[in-house]
Amino acid sequence: MAKYRFLPTTLPKISKYARDRERPNTKYFRLRRSAVEVYVDQLLLDENDPRIEDMDWSHVDDIFTNLLEAGADEDGKLPAVVDIGTDEYPVIDNHHLIAALQKLGQEKWYVDVYEYTGIDSEFMWDAATDFGFSINNSHNPTKKTTIASVVGAGVKRWREKGYIYEPGTPLDSAHIDMWLRLTKQHEVFAPTTLTKITNQILNPTVLAGKKIRNLSTKQVREEVFNTTDNYYGSGLLRNGSAYGFVVGTNTYDADAPKWWNSVQNAIEDGYLPVIQTYSTRDTPELIVKNHKKGFDKMYESFVKTTKIISSFYPNISIEPLSKKEFYNRVEYVAMGQLDGEYSDENTVIERTVI
């Protein structure tokens, strides 16, 4: 494997292996042409594609940076697209690479062109999701398939379409197993894990299948909070009565003590501290868990500070506030990243942590 630098106006170098390797086919997608040269602006990330909702934009940024600094892998797997008889080719696999190429301003790329062989056009994107899973699970991707992504895809399809395996099939262990085999989850997960996935699909939690808006700090500050009329955001808020901090919870264990310092500074200056969390995680359960754990860690820092102060005054014992009392002295909210927890695209919601 070798990587080669390229310019946006030139095609990358691809090896004979990349051109001639065997391509997968499924019941619903048949390869028509491999290693086809196309314009990147012909490649469509279709809004009807369920996988678009699960795009990890931080992963797109990583690919973008790697392409700029290291170049393209000559043996790399080519994106799969479907021919719909127009000048556009909807992407059915390797979405993150295509998004990175679009960000890069790349003019041309190589793709594998498939045709959809099904009769039901509405089923095409479900079949494409399954095809993408099977492709992803058949090689060594940089972004691994997760339990949450499989459970989420299964639960979402059942809730919206009334089936998981194919239209008209029931939701039971047998058909879930058929779907897991179709998408080659058996090549990724152990039998005990597959049993766990099946049980979670049959008995989903409230977060299972939730859609996630992956956000960056820049998006939170410049796009989302600009629409809240200075109620949320960074810096002075609410006509100078509050001070807002936008924080990420991905590394809450190390960052929460810093949030506590920010809270102290805001209180010292006479402001209500407003801590607003966001995340770039792609698992709903992890986003909510880290939001709650972040608050716990910040409260832990508060308790530690109180004990340290008490140690300087041996004749005075300062009892720290309870977690509930502390919660009522600050404002700790989260971005509405999960579908169903906000009323519109501009709403900042609160996840209860106590």
Write up what this structure looks like:
This protein is of the alpha/beta class and 354 residues long. The chain has helices at 16-20, 57-69, 95-104, 124-136, 147-161, 173-182, 191-202, 217-224, 252-268, 284-312, 323-329, and strands at 3-4, 29-39, 43-44, 72-73, 80-82, 89-93, 108-116, 235-237, 242-248, 272-278, 331-335, 348-349. The strands form three sheets. Strands 2-7-5-6-3 form a five-stranded mixed β-sheet. The mean pLDDT is 89.
Based on the model shown, name its key terms.
354 residues, single chain, 11 helices, 5-stranded mixed β-sheet, 12 strands, Conserved hypothetical protein from pyrococcus furiosus pfu- 392566-001, ParB domain, 3 domains, globular, 39% helix, alpha/beta
Offer a quick outline of the entry.
By secondary structure, the protein is an alpha/beta fold. The chain has eleven helices and twelve strands.
How far is the first residue's CA from the last residue's CA? 51 Å
Q: Please give the order of strands in the largest beta sheet.
A: 2-7-5-6-3
**What kind of sheet is the major sheet?**
5 strands, mixed
Task: Give the count of structural domains.
Answer: 3
Would you report the number of β strands? Answer: 12
Low-confidence stretches: none
The chain-level mean pLDDT equals: 89
- Beta-strand residue fraction: 15-25%
Order of helices and strands: EHEEHEEEHEHHHHHEEHEHHEE
Q: What is the gyration radius calculated from CA atoms?
A: 24 Å
What is the fold's blueprint, element by element?
Layout: E1 3-4, H1 16-20, E2 29-39, E3 43-44, H2 57-69, E4 72-73, E5 80-82, E6 89-93, H3 95-104, E7 108-116, H4 124-136, H5 147-161, H6 173-182, H7 191-202, H8 217-224, E8 235-237, E9 242-248, H9 252-268, E10 272-278, H10 284-312, H11 323-329, E11 331-335, E12 348-349
Parallel strand pairs: 3-6, 5-7, 9-10, 10-11
Antiparallel strand pairs: 1-4, 2-7, 5-6, 8-9, 11-12
